[in-house]
Amino acid sequence: MAKEVSMCTQLQQWSPVKPTGSTPSVPPQVGYCFHTPKKHPWRPIMGYEEIEVTPMPSQPITNTMVDPCYTSEGMAAEPLRFPNLVTGFDRSPEHAARAALYTRYTQHEWNQNSIRNYNESDAKRNFSERVRNDIMRMLRETDEIGAQGQRDSGRKIGERITDTTFWRNEVAIEMERLVATCERLTDTRRQLERAVAGIEGPLHIVQECLYHREKRQGLEQVHDTVEQSLLKEVAILRECQDKFRNMLEKVRQQAKNCRATQHELESDMRNKEYALGIDNMCHQLNNFSKGLQFYAGIERYDPTVCDAQRWAAASAATLQRSQSERAKAVQMLSDTDNLINVSATEIWDQWSNTNSAFTRRIAETIEIKNKLQLHLHKVQNEIFDIEKTLELLNKAIEDKLQPMKVAHSRLQARTNRPHLEKCRDYAQTRLVKEVCDLQETMEQLRSKIATAEGTHQTLLGVRASLEADLRNKAATLFIDRDQCMGLRRGYPVTAAIKA
């Protein structure tokens, strides 16, 4: 069974043959359809398939097989007819005899025919030699053109490799610088996040100080320099926190732009690396390389998207965008460092001013508290003295009661004198004067007692006021010195911002 491999440009069904007798219309397939391994854009898909072909019958064709009845089974074409003198003699004997015995040409014609053949042979041979020389010259020229073209193409590919390598190196250097800048941006972003979070501590402390100072009582709730400094410190902390947040948003946006530019550089570098690999492989190809093959129509296929000038301009534009974004990032890093340093200095100065105001206020409170204690001690002594004086006054009044009783008793006894003995003598006058003097003295003493008691009550009120003021001063001193300054001394504000 013979097999034949048939190649076709496109896979189509075989053209049917009109059946003759029991002949099949389509040759049976004995294999599968095979395609080319790779599709090319300049030509269609190639393929082939294996079929089984039925051979023609091996019976010779003769004049006896001129009728269709002698056609072999399976033969799909008409039999050939050959001329024959014998059979022709049977049909036309006169024509056959004349054709066999009649001479067509003379000797001269025969000689002329030979000479003409010689001349034609020489002319054709000379023409063939000229053609062959032209062909050899053309072969040498085509070889030179092919070699020169291959050399020029190799040189151009080498120049392209040099240009691509230069731009690849520039992109690699710029990408390293951009990556370092992105890392610095990341560090700055973390520093700003820590600064924003670090301000919460001092702000909470300042607010706690304000809340504690709200617990002051009486006239101690004064809008003093400490409260003014605390309110100013709250405003500065919130302002700095807002600045840090705004700068943080700018840094995040700039980091996104830098990452986008870095992605663009990485894509450009990958493309250039891939192109360098292809160009290096093409530059190393020669006539003796393996894997060479034909690609029909490849010279008419143009997959390029730009020319060399646009390619170089695109590479330069990519580098320029990266340098611009990197310059913006460096400027933002400088602004961020400046903002952090200025804000930390401002916060620290206000923190120190508030602590100084607290110190001065605590010193003033301690001084006033000491003076109040001194006055309270004096008032307490005066109360003690007035109480002693009151006791002496009461004792003096009590002491005057007995002489008053004696004088009254004497006057009462003298009222019992008879008749003219009841004269107003000096003794009677003196007793009356004594009683009057004692009464006047007791009235004066009672008046002094009332005055002393009023003074005593006043002193008690002053003492209560001083004691209440002392309690308020002590409470204020505890709030400012122990609570507020205790919180403020134990918190490193600059470490919270510059961490």
From TrEMBL:
<keyword id="KW-0282">Flagellum</keyword>
<keyword id="KW-0966">Cell projection</keyword>
<dbReference type="GO" id="GO:0005930">
    <property type="term" value="C:axoneme"/>
</dbReference>
<dbReference type="Pfam" id="PF03148">
    <property type="entry name" value="Tektin"/>
</dbReference>
<dbReference type="InterPro" id="IPR048256">
    <property type="entry name" value="Tektin-like"/>
</dbReference>
<keyword id="KW-0969">Cilium</keyword>
<dbReference type="GO" id="GO:0005634">
    <property type="term" value="C:nucleus"/>
</dbReference>
<comment type="similarity">
    <text>Belongs to the tektin family.</text>
</comment>
<dbReference type="GO" id="GO:0060271">
    <property type="term" value="P:cilium assembly"/>
</dbReference>
<protein>
    <recommendedName>
        <fullName>Tektin</fullName>
    </recommendedName>
</protein>
<dbReference type="InterPro" id="IPR000435">
    <property type="entry name" value="Tektins"/>
</dbReference>
<dbReference type="GO" id="GO:0015630">
    <property type="term" value="C:microtubule cytoskeleton"/>
</dbReference>
<dbReference type="GO" id="GO:0060294">
    <property type="term" value="P:cilium movement involved in cell motility"/>
</dbReference>
<keyword id="KW-0963">Cytoplasm</keyword>
